[in-house]
Inverse folding.
């Protein structure tokens, strides 16, 4: 079973006076492993709604459903994404950099 919780929104004005609304969701997925254990995994979804002056809406969305079992870790990542206005198009690339970054080693 999968549940989705709205954690934040961002409204942005883009070129030619058009606006976009970004919605950031925490995804909670419960799966049964074997027959006795229920595992809960957390993920992220971002939805972008773009309104043009002639009132047409374009919707773009991307989701990474199973990032971690640690809800606090995923919420921390989600708050960083909200703070930096990450869009659905870049979600996977940002998560890849965030989760698998190589630490800087000075010489």
């Amino acid at each position: 079973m999968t549940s989705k919780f709205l954690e934040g929104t961002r409204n942005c004005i883009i070129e030619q006076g058009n606006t976009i609304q970004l919605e950031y969701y925490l995804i909670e997925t419960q799966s049964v492993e074997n027959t006795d254990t229920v595992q809960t995994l957390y993920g992220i979804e971002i939805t972008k709604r773009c309104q043009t002056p002639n009132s047409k809406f374009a919707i773009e969305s991307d989701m990474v459903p199973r990032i971690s079992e640690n809800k606090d870790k995923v919420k921390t990542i989600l708050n960083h994404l909200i703070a930096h206005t990450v869009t659905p198009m870049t979600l996977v690339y940002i998560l890849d950099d965030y989760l698998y970054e190589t630490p800087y080693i000075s010489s």
